[in-house]
Amino acid sequence: MTTESGKPGKLEKLIAVYEHFGQEIAAIPDPWASKLAKQSNAVRTTVDRTLGKEPGATKSQFAAGLEQGLRDTPDFIAMASPEWRAHVAKALNNAVQTAYPEFLAKDAERLEKIRDRGKIKTDSEYYLIRHKIDVLEGSGDTKLLMDFYALVDSFGSKV
């Protein structure tokens, strides 16, 4: 799953993030961390088993799903016991920084482009904005939050 240049593609980087994260938290004696580790370590097998065997399953679809899963993982980390939560969160950050460091920067860049454009064009952009809204709610940044709500409302009315 590398590109023609021999560099890992987006899907491979995302799988590597999940594998790194799963390996790093596998030994944590917390039931929720164990569940996250098992799920993370199963990503490659699931992708390999499905790609090419399921009609219509594409690398880009898997990558989009794994990106969204990565954005949602902090919500699942919150379910780990308080004594292990920080360690699990740190492991996720370490996995992203190690295997796909441009992920967070790309998301920030995409958010800015969507905001500047003033409209959401794709489902992927919609889910990115929805995730950012979830992160911002309760933060006090009402101006940014209102901007994102307006984008989502506008996109939703076209569906």
Largest pleated sheet: none
- What is the N-to-C order of secondary-structure elements (H for helix, E for strand)? HHHHHHHH
Number of domains in the coordinates? 2
Q: What is the percentage of strand-forming residues?
A: under 5%
| Radius of gyration, CA atoms, in whole angstroms | 17 Å
Q: How many strand units?
A: 0
Structural class per helix/strand content? mainly alpha
Q: What is the helix fraction of residues, given as a range?
A: over 70%
Cα shape = globular
Instruction: Report, as a whole number of angstroms, the end-to-end distance.
Output: 33 Å
Report the average pLDDT across residues: 89
Task: Pick out the low-confidence regions.
Answer: none
Please give the count of helices.
8
Describe this structure in words.
The protein has 159 residues and is an all-alpha fold. It folds into two domains: 100 residues, no CATH class; 57 residues, no CATH class. Helices cover 74% and strands 0% of the residues. Helix 1 runs antiparallel to helix 2 and helix 7 runs antiparallel to helix 8. The longest helix is centred in the middle third of the chain and has 19 residues. It is globular, with a radius of gyration of 17 Å. The protein starts with 9 loop residues before the first helix and ends with a helix.
Give the tags:
single chain; 159 residues; mainly alpha; 2 domains; globular
Topology of this structure?
Blueprint: H1 10-25, H2 31-41, H3 43-50, H4 59-77, H5 82-99, H6 102-117, H7 123-136, H8 142-156
Helix pairs in contact: 1-2, 1-4, 1-5, 4-7, 7-8
